[in-house]
Amino acid sequence: MLKTPGLGPIVIERLEAAGISSMATLHRLGVETVVCALCTPGTNLAWRNRRNALQQALTSYLHRSGA
Fold first, then answer.
1. I want to staple 47 with a disulfide (CB 3.0 to 4.6 A). Which of 4, 11, 17, 38 is the partner?
2. Which residues contact 6 (CB under 8 A, 6 or more apart)?
């Protein structure tokens, strides 16, 4: 469900492992909340660098869905 331009398979896998299985869920939670949750102490801080990609993918999804 997360397959969207701008999100690679590893990003999708990590989001799904965190319980985010759709763009609607990402929208409901918010990109900042998701990035912060994935960047808890002891995890890979590279997620902060993915913030823009997640926001762009979400914006594209919302535009396509008319939301």
1. 38
2. 53, 56, 57, 60
